[in-house]
Design goal:
Blueprint lengths: L1 E3 L5 H11 L10 H9 L9 E6 L2 E9 L10 E9 L6 H17 L4 E4 L9 E2 L7 E2 L5 E2 L3 H8 L3 E12 L8 H11 L2 E5 L8 H8 L2 H13 L4 E5 L2 E7 L2 E2 L4 E3 L2 E4 L8 H15 L4 E7 L5 H6 L3 E12 L2
Parallel strand pairs: 4-5, 14-16
Antiparallel strand pairs: 1-2, 2-3, 3-4, 5-17, 6-7, 8-17, 9-16, 9-17, 10-11, 11-12, 12-15, 13-14
Protein name: GNAT family N-acetyltransferase
Organism: Paenibacillus plantarum
InterPro entries: Acyl_CoA_acyltransferase, GNAT_dom, YpeA/RimI_acetyltransf
Length: 322
């Protein structure tokens, strides 16, 4: 039997997750983390959250979300998860939960279903072959999962592969190329340093230029509140960033992203920003860093030169509704 969210099954859903989803590398859920990720998330919608029951036992859990203020929010519904208990993970059961999500998105006027990193329900996962080091957000569907294979057969298109990359900062050393690039950039009027409101201007203009609402919110708040952010400046005007520089309680270096305004590309600023970011994290005692990037993104070479290695692959997927 398929039903919409009923909080009385909360403990059963957590138990299901900790058995089935954890096998695909996701972090275990506690009551607190379940509420933070799902129930108390402002994008949580009980009518977009489904339970598959057998003899009043939870054997499946699927959750999606929508929001006009999200990237693609006017046309897309986001699929957060589709989890089935071992022994019940059949294509028919996956399809039952998936169809329920898609029908809900249709009711809300959405034209497609997306599985990608803009989803505001962040699912943490463990980085393979580490002492449970974790990344805070799954950027798609793990390509080694049964769900990935099912979605391909259900008409979902793989739009990109995301490389999840990892570096233990004890192994980080500033690449030799940094000083050469920095000297060249300096001669062209550029500086790479931590943001200083007494020296640098133009953060709002820079963030508007990227057109990324998440960066606008997070980087804008960080620079306004004194949270360290590595920036690139041209004659004192901020034209690129990497950060913020936040050491999480689990030892991970959290950062929202990295960007350089298009009119200032071609000067090696992206690599300078990233190397300086790694150094800033190392100086704060941060244990490790993790990130994800498109498998065909040229920036992957910057990360690899800094010592990062690809540890897991995720697929960004979409199905457009007829």
């Amino acid at each position: 039997m398929l039903v919409t969210w009923d909080a009385s099954y909360r403990h059963d859903v957590i138990a299901l997750w900790n058995d089935a989803a954890v096998k695909d590398g996701y972090k275990e859920l506690t009551e607190q983390s379940f509420d933070e990720i799902f129930a108390e998330n402002r994008y949580f919608d009980k009518d977009s959250t489904f339970l598959l029951l057998a003899n009043d036992k939870v054997i499946g859990f699927a959750c999606g979300c929508t929001g006009e203020d999200l990237p693609l929010g006017d046309v897309a519904g986001y699929i957060t998860c589709n989890v089935l208990a071992n022994g019940f993970d059949t294509d028919d059961n996956y399809l039952m939960l998936l169809s329920a999500l898609e029908n809900r998105f249709n009711q809300l006027g959405k034209k497609q279903a997306d599985i990608l990193f803009f989803n505001p329900m962040l699912l943490p996962w463990y980085i393979p072959d580490t002492p449970q080091h974790e990344h805070n957000n799954a950027p798609g569907v793990p390509v080694d999962s049964k769900l990935y294979t099912f979605l391909l057969g259900a008409g979902y298109v793989e739009r990109a592969k995301q490389c999840a990359m990892y570096l233990h900062l004890s192994a980080y050393a500033m690449p030799e190329e940094y000083s050469v690039k920095e000297t060249k950039a300096s001669a062209q009027g550029y500086t790479i340093e931590l943001f200083d409101p007494g020296k640098h201007v133009g953060v709002e203009d820079m963030l508007e230029g990227f057109g990324n609402s998440l960066w606008q919110k997070e980087i804008g708040a960080s620079t306004a509140n004194g949270v360290p952010v590595v920036i690139a400046a041209y004659q004192g005007k901020t034209i690129g960033f990497a950060g913020p520089v936040i050491r999480q309680a689990n030892g991970r270096g959290y950062f929202a992203g990295i960007g350089v305004l298009p009119e200032h590309e071609g000067h090696g600023l992206g690599s300078l920003l990233f190397y300086k970011l790694c150094e800033a994290f190392q100086e704060t005692g941060t244990e490790y860093m993790s990130l994800f990037t498109g498998i065909s993104n040229p920036a992957i070479r910057i990360y690899e030169r800094a010592g990062f290695q690809t540890v897991k692959l995720f697929a960004v997927m979409r199905r457009e509704f007829a």
